[in-house]
Amino acid sequence: MNSRYTLLGLLLLLVACGNHSTEGLQIFRYNESAGITSTDPAFAKDQAHIWVCRQLYNGLVQLDTALRVQPCIAHSWDISDDGKQYTFHLRQDVWFHKNELFLNADSTRPVVASDFVYSFNRILDPSVTSPGSWIFSNIAPNGFRAENDSTFVITLKEPFPPFLGQLGMVYCSVVPREVVDHYGTDYRSHPCGTGPFKYQLWKEGVKLVLRRNENYFETDETGFRLPYLDAVAITFIIDRQTVFLEFVKGNLDFMNSIDAAYKDELLTHDGLLREKYSDRIDLTTIPYLNTEYLGFLMDDTITPLQSRLLRRAINYGFDRKKMMKYLRNGIGRPGENGFVPSGLPGFDSCNYGYSYNPTKAMQLLKEAGFENGKGLPSITLQTTANYLDLCKYIQQQLGLLNIHVKIDVNPPASLREQMAQGKSTWFRGSWVADYPDAENYLSLFYSVNRSPKGPNYTHYSNKVFDRLFENARKETDPAIRAQMYHSMDSLVMQDAPVVVLYYDQILHFTHKNISGLRTDAMNTLDLRRVRKQ
To answer: Which domains occur in the chain, in start order?
Structure first.
C-alpha cells in the first residue's frame, strides 16, 4: 500500500481517539445528530444514511446539480421504443475498494454487469427487507440481465419515464457479492463500494471516518483523480446547540440546516446571515424538494372537515408570507402554489393554490353552513413538537375567523403510525422527494396508494385524477407529461385534501476555507470536489 495512506490511516486513528495532530491533511468534518445504524446502501432510507453511502458507493447513473440524469458507472444507455427495456453500457475502469476477500494480489476487482444483477436482485430479496424494494416493483420476471461484463439490461413490465432518475438513488448502488455474502447482516459495518471514499473506522455513536479512495475512477476537468480531500470525519453529537458551538469554533467544517434554538443568532428575519458571522462563514441556499403540509382524512365522516368548502376556507384563512418571515426567518417559500414544490421540474408557478384572503374564507364558511363560525365544532390538529410554533400561529389566525382549533402534540413515530393507519383526522406532514419527478409527489393522492399500502395518508380519491395519474406514468413525451402533472396538481388544490404550508429551503453553512461543496434540490452531499485550505 502507498506509504502516504498507511500514514493517513494511523493519523485518522489518532483523530478518532481525540488527538488532532493531522496538520497537512485535508479532513472534512461534519456532524450527524440523527446518527446512523448501517453503511449498507440497501438500507439508505433517510438523509443521514444517504449522505454516508453517497461517499462509499456509486450506481449506474447520477444526478447533476440541476437534477438531470448523468452517466456514472454506465457511460451510456439505450431505451427501447416501447420504453420498457434499458440497456446500460458500463465503464471498464471502475474498481471496488480493496478488501482481503478479493482473493488476488491487488485485493480488488473491476465492476462487471453481473454485479448489478446481484445488487438489484438483493434489493428485491424478501429476506433482506430493504426499504428500497419498491423501486423495482415494475421489473419484469428475470428483468435484470448481464449480456456480458460491460452490458447490463433491465426490462420493465410497463414503461415508466421517471425510472432512470430512480436509478440514481443510493439503493441502486453496486456492491460485491464476495463481501456481502461473507458478512451477511454484519455487512452494515463492513462496507465495500466503488465511491470516492472508503471505510476506515466506525465507533458507533461517536465517530465514523472515511478515507480517500486512491483508485476512484472519476477525474476533474484537468484530469486530476477525484476526490481532493484526504478524509471525511463524521461525529454523532445529539445536542444541536453543542453542534452549533462546535461549528462556530471551527471544529466542524459544515452545518446543514438550522435549529430553532439558534436560528435568530445566525439569521435575520429575511433569512440573511448576520453581519457578525459574514467574515468567517458562508451561507448557501437553494430550494429543497420538501413540501410541508397539513393533511385532512377525506373518508372520516364524523368531522365537518368532509366539507370541501370548509377545507378551502382553512386554506385561505392564514397568512403564509408572515408565517415564513417571523417563524421561519424567511427559510423557504410560502406554499401558495400546488403540492409539487419549487425547485422541481414540473413545478407550476401559476397561482392555483391559496394565499391569505380572510374575506374569501368567511364567504366559504357561510356557504358551508357555518356563517361566522356558528355551529362549527372545534377541530383537532395533530402535530409534533418541532412544528408547534407553526400550528399555534395557524390556530391563532383561524381563531380570528371563528374556526377553533385544538392542537394535539405527538411523538413523531406515534403521529406517523396514526397517519399510516388512517386514524388522524387532521395532521401535519411533509414529503421529501425520493427521485426528481413530480409523479413522486402526486402519488400521495392516487387512490391505489391509500395508506397503509402507500403514502396516500389523506385517503383522497378522484377518478379523473387517477386516470390522469395512470396515463402520465406511461407517457414518454416530457411536455405532455408535464401538462398532465399540472392538471393533477390543480385538481388536488381544488378539492383541498391538504393545506400546503411551504416549500422548504436548503441552508448549508461552511467556513471560508471550504470550497467546491456541491448540492442540489434533493440536498445531496457531494464531497468529491471539496477542498479545505
So the answer is: 55-192 (3.90.76.10), 288-506 (3.10.105.10)
**pLDDT of 3 above 50:** no
- The separation between CA 70 and the C-alpha centre of its own chain, rounded to angstroms, equals 19
The C-alpha angle with vertex 521 and arms to 517 and 525, in degrees rounded to 5, equals: 35
pTM, to two decimals: 0.90
Residue of 389, 398, 412, 320 whose CA lies nearest to 362: 398
Q: Residue 491 pLDDT > 90, yes or no?
A: yes
Summarize pLDDT for 311-341 with one digit per residue, the tens. 999 999 999 999 999 999 999 999 999 999 9
List strand residue ranges (DSSP E) for 329-437, in order.
333-334, 379-383, 405-409, 426-432
DSSP 522: T
Give the DSSP H or E segment for 152: strand 151-156
The model's pLDDT over 120-166, given as tens digits with 9 standing for 90+, comes to 999 999 999 999 999 999 999 999 999 999 999 999 999 999 999 99
| Secondary structure (DSSP) of 447-483 | GGGBTTTSSBTT----HHHHHHHHHHHH---HHHHHH
Residue 94's nearest CA partner among 212, 169, 175, 167 is 175
Distances (CA, A) of 172 to 45, 61, 364, 456: 12, 9, 48, 25
Q: Are 365 and 315 in contact (CB under 8 A)?
A: no
Question: How far is residue 504's CA from residue 342's CA, in Å, rounded to a whole number?
Answer: 9
